[in-house]
Amino acid sequence: MTRIYLHIGLEHVGAARLQQVMADKREQMLAKGVLFPRAAGPRNHTRLFMAVTDPDHVDALRAGRGYADPVRQAALRSELATTLARDIATHQPQAVILSASQLGTSLARRSELERLRDLLVPLSRDIRIVAHVDAPARMLARHYAAQVLDGRSASLDLERGLPGADWWDAALAKAPVIDAAAGHYFETHCPPFWLDHAALMAHWEGVFGAGTVRLRAYDAALFHGEAATEEIRAAFDIAGTLGRAIPVPVPEAPAAAWIARARQLNMLLERLQSVTGQIVPRALWGKFIQEVKIGGDPIDPGSLYSITQPLEARLKPLLDTQAALDPGWVAPGRRAKAAIWTEADPGQGFRASQYLLAFRGRIARAAKAARQEARDGSVTADDSAGVDLTPQVPLPAEIAPEATAKEHKTKKAPLSPAA
For the residues 92-117, what does the mean pLDDT come to? Predict the structure, then answer.
């Protein structure tokens, strides 16, 4: 019987790198009886993820690719099931690897895992779950930065004080109401419930069966070096060699100052939407975040140890059952020297209200173009230029509480984006 390996990420711990290497080695793996199918996606199997979320769990991928409609989502699921069955029948592999980094960090509902199981069981009843993890503080640093760059407006105070014994449920209790039109997505604004890896295992094994989940440690140097193929062999029980991978640099973490700038700007953009009813298109929002980018040191994971420390009692027992975990996995080594996290200085006198004032012309044009497109399907206006320095009506006080009266009287936006 064909065995299915379901690689659920997690995100920001090398999943994208392993997917790239598996795509590069696809034909070589198939010759060894291991299918890494294109049907679910060329590398990251996002089609699998989009097919199994609950109809009301619309994420940025479903919204952006036209699957927010439950009918279209159901059609995707049916098509994917048919295509996967055809590929397995054609190649008769010993094993199939399905890898989607969003599965472990987004599928928080049992109903979603059941839908995923029901999609896969007709293909094989032998299903194994593989998840790569890192020290919770390191994962939190990466995930928080990614969320902020994607629109999160809450600081890490959202995670501070979550109880270790009930981390999963307490984090999910802070999940937002999903509003795709306004860009409010579960993935962007919910605290990382899955940092409780023990609860993550219980969640998945509760649907796929006891003993089906294996946790493996993330090693940045290994994953991004030429020996990444060795991790693929070990994780998915591939006999024989796969050769060497092409080394790539380990991704650099964004500067803590940029994350501070982005979060503060996100907060004002959210207020703008709430107060005025204007919707800032996701693509335009992302451009604004890039335009406030600044260099500097990243968030120190050691400074987040006080936030994730309550999880230690839950995680340490996993070292006895998960042989592929490193003993230093629970906590980052520098915690004793690191100060407790506070938001970084955004640098260069940055004030989010000044940038928002400069961005308002582009937001207004985007809103006008969206209205026009809704009327006749026309193409939107170009918003790819730099910051608009045309004078704008001052921001309402409830949007920009820190803006001074002097700034409101300024004839031009007071500054252009920092490099």
Answer: 98
Number of helical (H) and strand (E) elements in the chain, helices listed first: 19, 5
**How far is the CA of 296 from the CAs of 45, 258, 349, in angstroms?**
33, 8, 15
* High-pLDDT (> 90) share of the chain, %: 81
Is pLDDT at 418 greater than 50 in this prediction?
no
Residue 115's region, left for phi above 0, alpha for psi from -120 to 50, else beta, is alpha
- First-residue to last-residue Cα distance in the chain: 56
Kindly report the pTM of this predicted structure: 0.89
b/e burial code for range 89-128 (CB count within 10 A of at least 16 → b): eeeebebbbbbbbbbbbbbbbeebbebbbebbeebeeebb
The alpha carbon torsion through 167, 10, 130, 308 (nearest 10 deg) reads -30
Region of residue 387 (phi > 0: left; psi between -120 and 50: alpha; otherwise: beta): beta
CA distance 115 to 106: 14
Domains, the chain, ordered by start: 3-134+194-235 (3.40.50), 256-297+351-409 (no CATH)
pLDDT at 90 over 70: yes
Cα(192)–Cα(235) distance, integer angstroms: 24
Contact (Cβ atoms closer than 8 angstroms) between residue 188 and residue 149: no
Dist. CA 202–CA 209, nearest whole Å: 9
